[in-house]
Amino acid sequence: MMGLFQSLFTKTFAHGIHPPTSKGQTHQLPIRRMPFSDLITVPLSQHFGAPSKPLVHKGQEVVRGEPIAEADGFMSVPMHAPVTGVVVGVELTPTAKGPKTEAIIIKTHPSASQKVMYGSEYDWQNANAEDLIHEIQNTGMVGLGGAGFPSHVKMQVPEDHQIDTLVINGCECEPYLTTDHRLMLEMTDSLLLGIRIALKICGAKKAIIGIEDNKMDAVAAIRERLDKSDPISVGVVKTKYPQGSEKLLITALLGREVPSGGLPFQVGVVVNNVATLAQLGELIPERQGLIERVVTIAGPGVAKPGNYMVPLGTPLRFALEHAGYFGDASRLVLGGPMMGNTAASLDVPITKPVSGILVLEPTESNSEQQKIYPCIHCSHCLEACPVNLNPSQLGRLAAKREYEVMASQYHLNDCFECGSCSYVCPSNIPLVQYFRIAKSVNRERSS
Amino acid sequence: MNQPLVEIRTSPHIHSSPTVAQIMRNVTYALMPLVAFAVFQFGISALALIVTVVTATLLTESLFAKLSGRENTIFDSSAAITGLLLALTLPPGFPLWMGAVAGFIAIALGKTLFGGIGFNLFNPALIGRAFVQAAFPVAITTWSPAFAPGRFVEFIPSTLTMPLMRPADLTPWIEKINASAGNAVDAFSGATPLAAWKFDGIATDSMDLLTGMVTGSSGETSALLILLCGGYLVLRKMMNWRIPATVLAGAFITALLLFLFDSEAYPDPLFVLFSGGLMLGAIFMASDMVGSPVTPLGVLIYGLLIGFFTVIIRTFGGLPEGVMYAILLGNALTPLIESVTQPRVYGDKQKKGNSA
Ligand code: SF4
Ligand code: SF4
Fold this sequence. Notes:
The complex is a heterodimer of chains A (447) and B (356).
Chain A: H1 2-9, E1 32-33, E2 39-43, E3 53-54, E4 61-62, E5 67-70, E6 79-80, E7 85-95, E8 98-108, H2 129-139, H3 151-155, E9 165-170, H4 179-186, H5 188-202, E10 206-212, H6 216-224, E11 232-237, H7 246-254, E12 269-273, H8 274-283, E13 292-298, E14 306-311, H9 316-322, E15 331-334, E16 341-342, E17 356-360, H10 380-384, H11 391-399, H12 403-410, H13 420-424, H14 431-446
Parallel strand pairs in A: 1-14, 9-10, 9-12, 10-11, 13-17
Antiparallel strand pairs in A: 2-8, 3-5, 4-7, 5-6, 7-8, 13-14, 15-16, 15-17
Helix pairs in contact in A: 2-5, 4-6, 5-8, 11-12, 11-14, 12-14
Chain B: H1 20-42, H2 44-68, H3 78-89, H4 96-111, H5 124-135, H6 171-181, H7 193-200, H8 206-211, H9 223-235, H10 242-261, H11 269-274, H12 278-285, H13 296-316, H14 323-340
Bound molecules: iron/sulfur cluster (2 copies).
Pfam families (chain A): Complex1_51K, Fer4_7, RnfC_N, SLBB
Binding site for [4Fe-4S] cluster 2 (chain A): 385, 415, 418, 421
Subunit structure (chain A): The complex is composed of six subunits: RnfA, RnfB, RnfC, RnfD, RnfE and RnfG.
């Protein structure tokens, strides 16, 4: 009864889906450190924007935390050495997405202390916004929620816009993932510090941390540290996918709708992920760089699931072995099961945007569960689509390759590929996949 | 560690049930009580008719699958559903060979021509029904009494009519039953409650309509049973409840307005809801998702229109039953309805309303 009462008054957005959250495997497990692997691979393009430019050469000794690549312009970030060791090469290596990119490969010093020696104290309280943005860029921070968008760019608000609210995304609506949940519990002070830094940059009067109502312990942990006059507060939202989409979170918390094709600042909001701000809260006062992140390793295929603090550049194979991966045939997903990608090989490094590694059971080929039928007009997809598109119609158009009509008349470009439509479709139509193809064809045609 | 087989797939990597095959299977389950009741009420004639029609639809389905080299879709149960629904709308004493024709037409014309499941514009069962309505106007309006004694051992005389032959006149048989039954069965006039109202102005008790203690097509008589079976599908989230709800609402509102206008000339709305094929049509045929719109507003319009047309055809048309044509009309209007009811997209500049 209480649950029903509560759910009636908990904020949320329209539509969406309720996949099994599958978080029980890891949400109780404190963050543990993962040891250093012998080889660390730091791709120069782990973020959205221009690849970083290497500062080191083969044979050079590097110390953990030392900058090893610099940002190439504003739309780029630097890289820091995740381990103390020696650079064994700057060369093309495979990445999770497929194509090879340039990366700095470091051989770990087995006997080094691995203490972070780099950095210096920084009085952020007396710095101005411009300075702070510069410092954020220096940390190499990107959106840790999965987007990989450089954080300093995101915090830079166009001059003619006023920001009144900073929204912090602690929804973690993807099944299996529990990194944000653990961070909110274990790095609460760093998170609040990060939020205060972000508040200072964007000039907002208040900050709201949006947390789904399946993480009430995190809500309590944060509320405990805030008094009434604090500009920071917690907004509890319904557990529903994709509640963690920034536009939908804004709608749930503030009742504002971000214009189609627009960005949150147009409605006076800046959104950041809890993991991003918690890390910034640790790095900024010490002027250090991002060299590790929390990753949930879970799924039926691992013996020791958990939340691991993983040095960036750790090979997937090493991380999985550490988590007790059986090594059977399976599906490896980087990120959450709704929006993550399958990893093409075990020899790719873990990069900044990777929030989870899931080992799922292989799909049974040829089963009834897999067979694709034509659309039966059940309208489940319309009821699921959080931005109110008509995936059924879009799917029918995609089958006829009418990609331009999809964009011009059926708002294809408002689709943010959350996967809700594919998730519910009883005909197993790979709707999102169709939409990705349609978008990329359209992009090619228009360029 | 050996290099394991890693599967490459695009997101999402999880999927909810049910799948189409599961839905189809459950619809067949949901129709079983109706079949059982039809057999209980009309005996072996109804059973033979249902078996014949379903066999015809299944055979036609595999025949066309073979001809077109497509994968045989017989196991997705959709052809069986078409057959069951079709059989349930036919009079229990309908000649078996005509039933087979109806089944063939339903699949051949109603489904396969459009490219198979999912591509058909119209509900295939109704195509079959409409065809035999036109081809065999007498047989399709020849009703036999419910709960006739000996219904489990003896066929209704018209059932076993030889192909291409006229069915036997049922009058002598009905007279015999009426005579022998005494007060066990009320004297049977050969008219369904709807026809009795339309042509003779005789109203049937709503309670009898609800429980199915009346005559009519094999599976349309018990409104209550149909409601329960539909409820099962709604509970299992395998049917969009909005469609039957709006169809019934449309019919009820239209009937109510007519009734308020002149309660002598028009039947009371409850009679309208529970009589004839409306319940079966609303719950099992209008809701066949393939021919219905996907947009929420579209569903509302579609359902209301079907309900409205059903009552209009019943009241002002030449036929006692209109639900079949109303649904076909609704199917035909679906593309149009969909195109004018596209949902308003999140963040769209336009306020409310259509953005198509
Ligand atoms: S993937 Fe796109 S179309 Fe599908 S539900 Fe998400 S936003 Fe809607
Ligand atoms: S969920 Fe699938 S079958 Fe249902 S309307 Fe959407 S695309 Fe069609």
